[in-house]
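The data layer described in this paper is built around a simple, fixed record for each protein. Because each token names a local backbone shape, the row as a whole describes the fold. We quote a single record here, exactly as it is kept in our systems:

***
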Amino acid sequence: MRKTYRVYIVEDEPLILESYKSILRAHGHEVAGSATDGITALRELSANPCDLVLMDINIPGKNGLEVARELYEASQTPVIFVTGYYSQELVDQATALGAFGFIVKPVDEKQLLAAIPVAMQRYFEYQLVKKEAQDVKTSLRDRIVLEKAKGIIMKRRGLPEQDALAFLQQRSRNQNKKLVVIAQEIIDADAVL
């Protein structure tokens, strides 16, 4: 896992914004940009991707939760929320959105520096689980296609299951195509007949 990241900051208080920038830069992180309101943040983040967003919840325009919702839909960029107004409701809303961190102001350097690697590790794990789920879904879909094609071959050619699979495998080798592609072609051809 990397040690430094491109961080975009959304904070409407200028002194706090500069403090975050200073801390991040002092520890090797790149400040990918900053905004003091939600509308500007969304516009800039869509044009300038980053690794992580440090976002105040109470900002003008669109609040941080609204910005994060739109950001997650568009790019899945991880967000660490920062707020000076702690409430269980805010924590619940941030959690429901999929926040990768939640810090209550005043934020000190150690809190901020600890939150970043934790958030990024959670994000990498999330991406891995998401990919594994997609792989399982694809594998299941491919298996269904293969089983359906085997059924068609068994019925049309009067072959047992093992021979139908061997037929598909041979055709796959002969045509230099993936087995699932051959299976789908057989299903498509059968639908025409």
